[in-house]
Design a protein that fits this description.
Residues 32-121 form the TTF-type domain. This is TTF-type domain-containing protein. Helices cover 53% and strands 7% of the residues. With 714 residues, the chain is α/β, with parallel strands linked by helices. The protein has a 5-stranded mixed sheet, sandwiched between helices. It has a two-stranded antiparallel ribbon with strand order 1-2. It has a two-stranded antiparallel ribbon with strand order 3-4. A hairpin with a 5-residue loop joins strand 5 (230-238) and strand 6 (244-253). Helix 12 (331-342) runs antiparallel to helix 21.
Length: 714
Amino acid sequence: MDGLAAEPGDLGVEEPNQIVLKTFPARLFSGKKRTFNSAWYGSRRWLEYSIQADAAFCYPCRKFRAPSSAVDSTFTLSGFCDWKHAVETGKGLNKHASSKEHQLCEAMWRDKERRVQTGTEIATLVNTEQLQRNRYYLSAIIDAIEFLTVNQLPFRGDNDGFDSMSGDGCGLFLSLFEYTLRKDPALARIAQSIPHNARYTSHDIQNNIIDIMSTMVTEQIVKEVGESFYTIKVDGTRDSTGTENISIIVRFVNDLYEPTKRLLTISTTDKGDAATLTDTIIEELTKAGLSPQKIISQVYDGASLMSGKHGGVQKLLQQKLHRYIPYVHCFNHQLHLVVIHALTTEQAFLDFFTMCNMLYKFCRKPTVSLLYKGQTLKRLLDQRWTGHLGTVSVILRSFDDLATLLREVNSATAYPKDVRVEATGLLQAMSEPSFRFIAEMAHKILSYLAPPNTMLQAEDMDLFTGLQLVNSACTCVENLRSETEFMALFQCCKDATEEPAPKRQRTPNTSFAMYVVEERITHEHPNNETELRRLYFSCIDAVCGEMKERFGERNCVLMDALKSLDPEDSTFLDVSKVKPLLDLSNTAIVESEYTVARRFLSEQMKVSSPPDGGKWTMKKVLKHFHKPLEAMPSVMTALKHALTFGASTALCENSFSTLKNILTDHRLSMLHRRKANLIKLAFEKDLTKKFREEWKDSLLRRFHSAAKRRLPLY
């Protein structure tokens, strides 16, 4: 078997990993919370702590125990976590330290240290060349795993054995490794000398390497976050196996003073209630090494499970952490709701999009699609309003092609009667001026909403800039509300549409001959100019009303704070405005720093322009002037906090696209841990690619430690 012992991936490789945290996770013992204490490292060089397992381990016993040794597996595999009795006499750490097995392993460890210091290590004297060959062999395996992971490709086939790699059904991993052996004669010669029990091509070895890679990526993300405050973005989806997948994204300002978003993990839970989801978020953050107390804002969709004011995740998280954490409803989600609600208030719009769906289905008929020469129609999706814009755009560009298609089908006796009848009805509906008018109006309104929807998904988009974009789009839609705009659109559609056949004049009822008729109640024809005018203004009012209601500055104090950090605003660096933002992190505000910073930055921005042109923004000010701002830490903190606020959970949706690519119909037996690791490695490919060179040696050393030197590497 190629399987490895299940040790946490964050334990020491060359020396004990004596981690020191400000606050260690707590466990309940008899109703009292107890934690690991870093003071226990004092006289115990051998002691190490794993964040992943929240447990203590013995470094020499892990590294130097014999396979048949009686060393307590608590300190080597599962981990010691009985904090209540950790330092009691005759128990816990003291009991382990006094055991003969531990003392023997510790003596072997110290002996190795002496040999390393004097340059007489056995591996160095006897087997250096073989160790290099072993590392070269495993390096090729890591390269194959990295390639398949980054490209979201499956690993395994029907056969998993090393000897079956040249046969059918061996899968991409073995096929890629076999190809590498053919292209690299030196690797092929090394492979022939590798012991059969250490070829490291089984799925267990793949999982172990993927685990270590995922752990190292997580460690890098935590390192990038550092001591910064961060925003969490959370969303969930069920995959085809029915498993709930919870995507947790963190947004922070990195060491280069750039807003950055990273996928921390894909978690899962058996229950879907708000309390369980809240506990899962806190647990995953803590397990990764991030302090939940550093959360400065939270971004979710508008489902009551997440946004509930009393029992939603956003409220429960604040209650558990005992502090105020602003909640932001995803702007992309809100834009979707604006379109869906506003454009469905009028029956005419519902009928129009129903017609669009009927055209889509009609053009997909096998016999009809051969005649169609226009652009492919888009399918309308309830969960993606951008599909409405795509559909309307195609219909307007291919209007003549669609009309030609419907006429040809209508006049061709070769088509079944029901198809010709359907074509006649669709052609008649398309020929109505109201159809063209609604299409043009919907296209114009949705086109104004498309740019902010796209830009909100950008990695560096902050909350304040996102709100400015949405407000600009709303203003553009409001500017359409004029008689001039209506008449221009109405006349354009009237000229582009064939005049309908004149209708018979209605004969006045002779019964009213002796009466004075003051008002007639009649049904307005949908093509009537008055009805189209009403429809036009009603739709614009509905869109603008929805946008103002959903994107109104609900937390005016916080939005004023963000606004006061905009270099273009008259309240730039106003201490009274900025203070609520710093209160979120209990940061003291120093008025003198703001006075100096406002004067300094104002003068600098007058005489210089941003390196990339344009106008000065919060991001550009922080990036360009971070050196002098380091002398004004409360100003620096305020700018970093403002850029940390996010506006969209689009990145969570992107991670679900990666999930769909990885969990195909042929990979449904995959365990969640492997699936989650593969998603993270594929999604954060810029970090995963570091295993090609920069991180490879560290990965080899960790694997060597976990593999118990079955194939010695060092």
